[in-house]
Amino acid sequence: MDLAAEDLFRAVSNFKAIERLLVRRGVDLRRQDRLAGTAVGMRWQLGFDWRAHHREMVLELTQFDPPEALTLEGSSDQFNLSIRMTVVALTRTKSRLLFETEAQPRGMKARILLQTAKLGKSQLDRKFARHVGDLVTYLIANT
Prior knowledge:
Alpha-D-Glucose-1,6-Bisphosphate, Chain A, domain 4, 4 helices
């Protein structure tokens, strides 16, 4: 991105903008902490429809190290999820976002779902990269 690392980190850690985006996309979002600012311990209860089923997930901010990294840990009935965003400064005005996710199955049904997804991994990777790029573009525009 043609953006300083601090500015990129500020954009991807703009949780108010992320909350607004999720609500606009039909996610039932409830904040479960009473923290005033952005800090480790922020926690959300998410409800959404995916593949014709209603899903519930709890997501918590477990690492917040501006302007470099943040980690979100989550769990649902089928998966444990980890999302790590790391901002790397390339120059004073350019930076790169490393967006890593890890889904761990919590049962046999979830394990089979992940194995099936791995068959189309290259296509999923392209779609995922495009969606992350769209998210970052939205967050930069709304910060």
